[in-house]
Specification:
The complex is a heterodimer.
Chain A lengths: L3 H17 L2 E5 L4 E8 L3 E4 L5 E3 L5 E3 L6 E3 L5 E3 L1 E6 L4 E5 L21 E6 L7 E11 L11 E5 L10 E3 L5 E10 L2 E6 H12 L6
Antiparallel strand pairs in A: 1-2, 1-6, 2-3, 3-9, 4-5, 6-7, 8-9, 10-11, 10-13, 11-12, 12-15, 13-14, 14-15
Chain B lengths: L1 H19 L2 E5 L6 E5 L5 E5 L9 E4 L5 E10 L4 E6 L20 E6 L6 E11 L2 E2 L29 H36 L5 E2 L2 E4 L11 E3 L5 E6 L7 E5 H14 L5 E2 L2 E7 L2 H7 L3 E8 L4 H4 L7 E5 L2 E2 L3 H7 L8 E8 L2 E8 L1 E2 L2
Antiparallel strand pairs in B: 1-2, 1-4, 2-3, 3-6, 4-5, 5-6, 7-8, 7-12, 8-11, 9-10, 11-14, 12-13, 13-14, 15-22, 16-17, 17-18, 18-19, 18-20, 20-21
Classes of the chains: A mainly beta, B alpha+beta.
């Protein structure tokens, strides 16, 4: 007899295997983070801090295309061009020259509820395609330890360096956020998917089309 | 709905209780005690190598509160496994299972018994693999394994591209395309340099299960338990700092067997540096394999050198088994081939020939 726990396990690993295909590695010449395929025609979303290098004065600038490398889940690599960069929101959009990439169905930030089960993918400490799971602590613009005025999803799971830019998935396998930062070993923060949508809408001029 | 949640919670508590019967406390270091798991009813207990700091006066605390003494059978720093033998103890042997049907995303529990009572943390399997090094340059040489990529791509996630965005994407793609071509050439050169530098590829850990379970103090040496209450391996937080790694049961079994028969774990050694190289289509057809291992270095005086293997040879098979990747070669260089004279099939100057090599032991 399969127990409920075993059924739960089968569902979770299905979600992760599906999400995996849209997880990429973004190498910026200094280190690496993760990225999420947003559109099949080579559009990838990641964090600005993943697609950036530090200049001598400590500011960040987008990495030039001869150093910015995107590795897909199937092992192919492509050099990428930054097409939009928003340091304030810590988001960047990258283009790679390919088509027919697998994407993740987009969710909505307003459906995210405190306590719901979520999964995050990335490359913690360089271990490729690793998953972590936990629950939503809360969401909003007014969370402890975070600058006010920006929307966040706070998470009780184990994000690590290398998870940045990777997808945050709900139990239906929908993209609900982009893993972005940690304030402790067990507390992580993701940028809600709606912030990503409005970033792309502004940067790429897709007026209200989403 | 709340019934389901209660049922899941009860199932987890039940798993902890039943698997916890086989988790013991191990006092073999000055600091906090750590954990171990019963291997067999005749007194064998497996734990982490790094928590066993002394060879004698090892105390074991059983689930029923009883304390017994144990002796060290052996240890393997490579896999971070130590085996102890407890005297006169009534032990409960758990259900040890391989990691074959474990999938990324499965819920797992880490158990520990640093004190009298069982403790548990919950997490998921983060990654499964067969390739990990402690080098920081790890990302450049690993490719994602077992990636299901055959399914058709999903429909675009409700994101229509207006013409303006399409043009800026295409312009960016054009620039990215040139950079990609240049980068692939550089990558080939880098792969070659890496293979040369890595020599005989030491410091590898052949199989692993990575989880996101929190390893509380004293959890080292404890079991990773799956949803069916089976033990999938021994948790060790020492192998790679910051991520929880589990040594899978098949590796534990091999280490226990080797320690019982030899007192140590032996591993074969050839003394070569190699990288996978694509065969021409004619050769691929002839040998039914697409890649071989190109030797990029041969250590002077090593078994490979003595047998006459040379830089530039392409290894196709060892002891009659096809060798396409470094992993496949490593798997063949197991302890039972140490000292054995095995035939190695190589391509030299486009001709296949067989060379006899006496496998050495990696020290």
């Amino acid at each position: 007899m399969t127990t409920l726990l075993q059924q739960l396990n089968a569902q979770m690993s299905n979600v992760i295997e599906q999400g995996w295909r849209s997880l990429v590695r973004v190498g910026n010449g200094e280190g690496a983070g993760a990225g999420t395929i947003w559109h099949p025609d080579g559009l990838i979303v990641t964090n600005a801090h993943v697609a950036a290098q530090r200049t001598r004065r400590g500011w960040r600038r987008p990495v030039a295309s001869d150093e910015l490398k995107v590795t897909l889940a199937d092992g192919r690599d492509f050099m990428a061009q930054v097409i939009a960069f928003d340091e304030q929101n810590d988001l960047a959009a990258l283009a790679i020259e390919t088509r027919d990439l697998p994407t993740i169905a987009l969710g909505n930030s307003w459906d995210v509820r405190t306590g719901q089960w979520v999964m995050a993918l990335g490359h913690p400490w360089g271990v490729h395609g690793a998953a972590t799971s936990g629950i939503v602590i809360g969401k909003g613009t007014n969370l402890p330890e975070m600058p006010a005025g920006r929307d966040w999803i706070a998470l009780s799971l184990h994000l690590r360096p290398g998870h940045s830019g990777g997808p945050l998935l709900d139990t239906n396998g929908q993209l609900i956020g982009i893993n972005t930062m940690i304030t402790g070993p067990d507390v992580g923060f993701a940028i809600p998917v709606d912030t990503v949508k409005s970033f792309l809408r502004q940067a790429l001029g897709t007026r209200g089309a989403i | 709905m709340s019934d389901m949640l209660k049922q899941v919670s009860d199932e987890m508590a039940q798993m902890v209780e039943s698997a916890g019967q086989s988790v013991v406390r191990i006092e073999a270091r000055r600091r906090l005690p750590a954990s171990g798991v019963v291997w067999s009813a005749d007194g064998l207990i497996v734990t982490s190598h790094h928590i066993v700091e002394r060879d004698d006066n090892i105390q074991i605390g059983l689930a029923n509160g009883q304390n017994v003494t144990a002796t060290l059978v052996g240890r393997d720093p490579n896999t971070d496994i130590a085996v102890l033998r407890a005297k006169d103890a009534a032990l409960t042997v758990p259900n040890w299972a391989g990691a074959d049907d474990l999938r990324v995303g499965h819920l797992v529990l880490a158990l520990g018994r640093p004190g009298q009572y069982i403790q548990a943390t919950l997490g998921v399997v983060s990654a499964l693999g067969s390739d990990i090094t402690e080098e920081s340059g790890i990302e450049d040489v690993l490719i994602m394994r077992n990636m299901p990529f055959d399914a058709p791509p999903m429909a675009p996630g409700g994101f229509p591209f207006p013409p303006m965005a399409r043009r800026s994407l295409e312009r960016a793609q054009e620039r990215a395309k040139r950079a990609t071509e240049q980068s692939r050439e550089r990558a080939e050169r880098r792969a070659r340099r890496w293979a040369e530098r890595s020599g005989s590829w030491g410091g590898r850990f052949e199989q692993f299960v990575q989880t996101d379970v929190a390893m509380y103090p004293g959890f080292s040496g404890g079991p990773l338990v799956d949803a069916g209450g089976q033990i999938r391996g021994i948790n060790s937080s020492a192998i790679m700092r910051g991520v929880s790694l589990t040594v899978p049961t098949p590796v534990v079994r091999r280490v226990v067997e080797a320690l019982l028969s030899h007192g140590r774990v032996r591993q074969g050694f050839l003394g070569i540096g190699a990288q996978p190289a694509r065969l021409t289509s004619a050769l691929a057809e002839q040998f039914k394999q697409e890649t071989g291992l190109l030797l990029v270095s041969v250590e002077v005086g090593s078994p490979a050198d003595k047998s006459g293997l040379m830089v530039g040879d392409v290894l196709l098979a060892l002891d009659g088994v096809m060798v396409r990747t470094l992993d496949e070669l490593l798997a063949l260089l197991s302890g039972n081939r140490v000292g054995a004279e095995v035939p190695v099939l190589v391509l030299r100057g486009g001709q296949a020939q067989e060379v006899l090599v006496t496998v050495g032991e990696r020290k």
